[in-house]
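re the bet — no i am not wrong, look at it urself. input seq straight from the record:
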Amino acid sequence: MITKRSNSVVTPEFQGRKIFDELYLYTDGAARGNPGPAGIGSVITTAQGKVVATISEPIGETTNNYAEYTALVHSLRLISAFNVDKIRIHSDSELLVQQLKGNYRVKEPSLKSLHQQVLSMLGRYRDWQITFLPRSSNREADRLANAAIDAYLSQSQSLRGPSPKKAHQKQPSLFES
């Protein structure tokens, strides 16, 4: 069994702080293969660009779109501990952005509940906006999502043991000279 290790970190400068006028969420979900090993990454900043928190978490085997929604859900869950008036969400998933703006329908059954969950969570904010940005402008969230996948793959490899090629190689014996 592979354990999902959460790596959500509130920056020490902001630990204990409860009130923010505005927060910026940069989120990314990634899957290697579709579906495949997946991870989420998020960077949450103040309007001045100071990092409030980061998330890097493997989420198992799933699709890229599911990972994108999951990254946003986890980010919104993390900031729910704060009193925030406005949030600005930035994602490199055009599908997620357009679905949340109401421009695209949510057809995939596995995304419908996540979509409703996100809309429900967004209802607590006085003002929210979501914006598409290219992956090149969302590098840190992308790096965190991919680091989570690497951690997942590393853990799954260690649980599987050596690859068959290595397992069949003759191991040196303590009694050989």
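see?? The two ends are 40 Å apart (CA to CA). told u. also Helices lie at 64-79, 94-100, 109-122, 139-160, 164-167. so pay up
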